[in-house]
Amino acid sequence: MGVAKYTKDAKDAILDVELHSGIHVKPSYGPQDLERVGFDYQEDLGEPGRYPFTRSIHPQGYRSREWTVRQYSGFGTPDETNERFKLLIAHGQTGLNVAFDLPTQMGYDSDDPLAEGEVGRVGMAVDTMADFEAAFQGIDLTTVGSGLTINAVASIMLAMYEALARRWSVDVTRISATPQNDILKEIIGRGAWIFPVRPAVDLVGDVIEYATAQGRLPRCNPVSVCGYHIRESGATPAQEIAFAFGIAFAYLDNVVTRGYGAEKVVGRFSFNFNIFGNLWEQVAKFRAARKLWARLLSERYGVRDQKALFLRGLFGGGGFGLTKAQPENNIVRGAYYALAAALGGAQTTALCSYDEAYTIPTPQSALISLRTLEILMDEIGLRDTVDPLAGSYFIETLTKEMEEKIMEEMERVEKWGGMLAAVENGEVQRLVAKQAYQWERDLLEGQRVKVGVNKYAEEGQEGQVELHQYSEESASRQVSSLREVRRARGQREVARCLTELERVLKTRRNVMPILVECCAAYASVGEMCGVFRQVLGEMEEPSLF
Amino acid sequence: MSSATRGPNPPRVLVAKPGLDGHDRGAKVVAFALRDAGMEVIYGGLHQTVEKIAATALQESVDVIGLSIMSGAHLPICRRLMEELARREMTDVAVVVGGVIPRSDMAALTELGVAAVYPGGTPLPEIIEGVRRVARREKGA
Fold it and tell me: Are strands A177-179 and A223-226 parallel, antiparallel or unpaired?
C-alpha cells in the first residue's frame, strides 16, 4: 500500500520520512554518508556480474538478455487454461506461471465435498495426469519453462510434470519446471498448508534432493522461496528478505543434513519477492539482498562456485499495493512497480493486473500488465546500462542501511530459536499480523497516504470492472472427466503405487520416485495426498493473540 | 480508532475463514480491530468447515460470526452456513461477511440472511460499528 510514514509541518513540508523497514531518509546525501555507513567500492559494489553481485548477477544485465516475463495464470478446466497459456505465449511471454485451484492446492479431488464451489475457481483444477496432458497440449516442455504455483503438494505436481514428460517421450533432463514448494511461507502468509511444520519441510527437502543433489531433474529449480506473500501479510521489506533467507536456510539445512554439499543444491534455489510502496526502498532491498545472499552463502556454507551464489528470482507482483478504489489507477501503479523491478535488476518478473482486487484478471487486463513490462524494456531505456542507480550517494547509503536491517531481522529469528521453531510457535505469524493491523491504523490516521483511499478519495469510486465468471458447468465437466479417468485406469497398479507410497512415507525415504509412478498410473491428487494426511497428520494453527 | 473500554457485556465475535482459501491478512486485522474496540474475539483461523464454525459459535456462545472470504465462493459457503445454523436452531447468531465480494452479490447474500457485508476496502470503524449494531440486535438490546 502507501509509501513511507511522513511527518510534516503545518505547511505540508516534510520533516521526517520513515521507510517501512524503519530506516529514516535525509533531505540530501553526500560522500560523508557513504563514509558513515562504511561503504567500500570493491566490497559493497564492484563490477556487475562479480561478487558480491550488488549490481547484477550478469555482467551485461539486460543488455545481454531482457527479463523473463512470467504472468500468473490458469483457471477452470485444463482445456481452458491451455487456451490462456497459448494466448500468453503468442503475445511474447517466455515462461508459464501456473495457477492451481484451491482444492488442488489443498490436496482434494474435484469431487470431494470440501471442494464444492471451488473447482477451477482461482486456478486450474488438477486431479490426475490426464489434466496435465490437456493443460500442456501443444506446448514444448523443453523450451517453455513452467512455474508451478503450489506448495503443500508441490512434490506431487513436480512428479506429475515428470510423468507427463515421460509419457510424451520428452527427455526429462531437458524439462524446466519451478514448483513453488515453499511451505513455510504458506504457513506464515498464504494459508495453503496441510501438514505439521517438520514433516512438511521434509517434503520440501525431498523435492530439492531429488531434483538437485540426486541430479534427477537438472533443469528444474526445486524451490521458489517467497518473501512475496510474507510481505503481503504485513512484513516490512527488510523482514521480507530476512524471513525468506531464514526459510531458504531451513530448506538448505534439511538437504545438507542428508549428506550433500550446499554448493550442489543451493545454486538452483530461486526467490519470489514483492514490489509495492517506496521506490527507493524496493531498489535498495534487491541490491542488498543480492549482496547478502552471496555473502551469507560463502561465509556460512562455504559455497565457492560463483553461479551458486546468485540470488535468482522473480521480483514483481505488487498485489497489496493495488487498490479497490479507482481501479484504473492500478495500471499506473503497476508501471511504477515494474520500474522498481527493473531498477532492482529483476531477472524474472510478473505484474498483478489492475482488476485483481475484484476478480481473476480478464484476458484484456492480463495483456495490459504484459504490455506494461514490454514498454519498459523496449521503449524507455531500461536495457541501456546495468544498475543505473549505482554510485548514487542516496541509493548506496540506503543499500547499506537495508543490509543492516535485514541482518537485524535475521537475528530476531535466531532469538526465536530459528525459523522452524518460530513458525511452529506462530511468532512470525503474530508479528506480521500485528504489523498489518498497525498499517491499517496508520492509514486511518493519515500517516500513510494511499491515493483514492485516504487522499483524493471520491464518492462512488467503486470501479466498473468486468468480472471473471465462475463456471459451474466447467466444474462439473472436471468432475465427470475425473470419474472417467478413475474408471478407465489400471486399478491394481494404482493400489500398488499408493501402498508403496505409504511405505516410503513411513520409512522416511524420498517420496519423489514413487510419486512419479503414482502419477503415471493416474492416481489422483486426493488419493496421494490422502496417504500423506494419514501418515503425516495435519497442522494445528498457532493462536493469533 | 476507538478503543472503547470493555463494557459489562461486550459482544462476543467468532472470526473465521471458511473454505480452502488461506489469505488471512484481512481476517486477522479485523480480529485485532474488534478486540481493540472492546469485543471478545475468538479467532477460529483457516480452513474451517461450516459445521466447525457453527459448532465453535455454539460452544463459545458468540453473538456474531464474521467470515472472511477471498476465493469468490462466498455464495455457496454462506448458503451452507445459514442452513447449518438453521438446522442447529442458532438463528439468533448474526453472520457478517467480508472479503472480495462484488457489489452485484450483496443482495443475494442479504437474501440468504447475512446481516452485513463488508467488501475489501471497507474502513475498519465502519466494520466495528456494524458488528456492534448487529450484536446489539441479537442481544435484543
Answer: unpaired
Q: Do B102 and A234 touch (CB under 8 A)?
A: no
Q: Where are the beta strands (DSSP E) in B19-84?
A: 40-48, 64-69
pLDDT at A1 over 50: no
**pLDDT tens, position by position, A235-255:** 999 999 999 999 999 999 999
Contact between B13 and B62 (Cβ < 8 Å) = yes
Q: Three-state SS across A158-183?
A: HHHHHHHHHHCCCCHHHCCEEECCCH
Closest CA to B65 of B102, B36, B27: B27
Per the listing, cell 502468509 goes with A189
Number of domains, chain A: 1
C-alpha cell at A187: 504457513
Give the one of B20, B24, B104 whose C-beta lies nearest to A118's C-beta. B20
Burial classification of residue B68, based on how many CB atoms lie within 10 Å of its CB (0-12 exposed, 13-18 middle, 19 or more buried): buried
A40 contacts A399 by C-beta, under 8 angstroms: no
CATH code of the domain containing A239 = 3.20.20.240
Cell (9 digits) for A352: 498483478
Tens digits of residue pLDDT in A211-230: 999 999 999 999 999 999 99
Which of B1, B20, B43 is facing A441, going by the closest CB pair? B1
Chain B within 8 Å of A453 (Cβ-Cβ)?
A: yes
Cα–Cα dist A445/A464, whole Å: 28
Q: Residue A513 domain-assigned?
A: no
The reply to whether A488 falls in a domain is no
Q: What is the mean pLDDT of chain A?
A: 94
CA nearest A324: which of B26, B47, B20? B26
**Residue A433 included in any domain:** yes
The helix or strand, by DSSP H or E, that contains position B116, with its residue range, turns out to be: strand B116-119
Q: Round to the nearest angstrom and report the end-to-end CA distance of chain B.
A: 24
Say yes or no: A410 contacts chain B, CB-CB below 8 A: no
First to last CA, chain A: 24
Domain range enclosing A390: 30-61+183-444
Domain assignment present for residue A279? The answer is yes
A457/A444 Cα distance (integer angstroms): 13
CA atoms within 13 A on the CB side of A346: 29
Contact A325, A6 (CB under 8 A): no
Compute the count of residue pairs across chains A and B with CB atoms less than 8 Å apart.
Answer: 97
pTM of the full structure: 0.94
Could you tell me if residue A537 is left (phi over 0), alpha (psi between -120 and 50 degrees) or otherwise beta? left
Look at A96 and A195; give whichever has higher pLDDT. A195
Query: Does pLDDT of B2 surpass 50?
Result: no
Instruction: Identify whether the C-beta of residue A104 lies closer than 8 Å to the C-beta of residue A114.
Output: no
Q: How many CA atoms lie within 13 Å of B10's alpha carbon, on the beta-carbon side?
A: 18
Out of B28, B104, B119, closest to residue A544 by CB:
B28
- Smallest CA–CA distance, residue A440 to chain B, in Å, is 8
8 A C-beta contact, residue A475 and residue A110? yes
Contact A325, B121 (CB under 8 A): yes
Tell me the pLDDT tens digit for each residue of B37-72.
Answer: 999 999 999 999 999 999 999 999 999 999 999 888
